[in-house]
Amino acid sequence: MTSTLHGQNIVITGGDGGLGIAVVAAFTEAGAACHLPVFGANAAAPVGNARVTGNINLTEEASVEAYYAGLPPISASIHLAGGFLAKPIAETSKADLEKQISLNIVTTFLCCREAVKALRKNGGGRIVNVAARVVEVPPGGMTAYVATKAAVAGLTRSLAAEVLKEKILVNAVLPSIIDTPANRASMPKADHDKWPKAEELARAILWLASPENTLTSGALVPVYGQG
User: Among 20, 138, 185, 193, whose Cα sits 20 to 30 Å from the Cα of 120?
Assistant: First the structure.
């Protein structure tokens, strides 16, 4: 798929994270100009010539609006930013829940909304969100996280139906625990060979966001293999 996205502008939130670095690398190799909104003030581009903009708070409406309004015409927007919480419900505070809502559903909603506005000007495009395997196979002990990722899945399907006639295709991937250095360090005794690799997930996201995807919209794509 090299050069499939040559010269196209792609937004990637969470592009400085473990999965994000692999996604940026895949899109860069495909010829895309990657635009990365990051929260830190002095963030450096994690891959090649990715265009990083600091001090972007994706939980704040005005910040997201201003960021997308300042971009060149885009063909896709990839939403990797989010947060994780593993707590039994009896130990989960309202503040914990609100943080999960803010990190997972608010960021995705705002970025989807502004992406739709931008893609309409460009005659269509692609949006890819990140839900999680737990939406389909919910475990115990992380109710707030599961609830907000389920909301991302619902948002994806509803938005896909809303904008399909405008040639905007909207999908989500459902990863399990991703094989990153941080996850290995936090779970050293786990069977890491069963975890999906960030590079594998990046290839799936790349296809969903590329012109080669001409039909798929409203899908929740399982990308967890054995994990």
Answer: 20
| In contact, 198 and 19? CB cutoff 8 Å | yes
Q: Smallest Cα–Cα separation from 145: which of 82, 90, 201?
A: 82
The pair phi, psi for residue 35, each rounded to 5°, is -115, 120
pLDDT digits (tens, 9 = 90+) for 111-154: 999 999 999 999 999 999 999 999 999 889 999 999 999 999 99
191 contacts 227 by C-beta, under 8 angstroms: no
Residue 189 near residue 136 (C-beta atoms within 8 A):
no
Q: Which domains does the chain have, with CATH numbers?
A: 9-222 (3.40.50.720)
How much of the chain is in helix, strand and coil states, percent to nearest 5?
Answer: 45, 15, 40
Task: Specify the residue for token string 């015409």.
Answer: 73
CB neighbour list of residue 174: distance below 8 Å, 6 or more residues apart:
131, 132, 133, 135, 136, 153, 220, 221, 222, 223, 224
Amino acid in the structure at residue 190: A
Q: What is the C-alpha radius of gyration for the chain, rounded to an integer number of angstroms?
A: 17
pLDDT value, residue 179 = 67
Regarding pTM above 0.85, the answer is yes
pLDDT above 60 for 217: yes
Strand 9-13's sheet: what is its strand order?
51-53, 33-37, 9-13, 76-79, 125-130, 168-174, 220-222
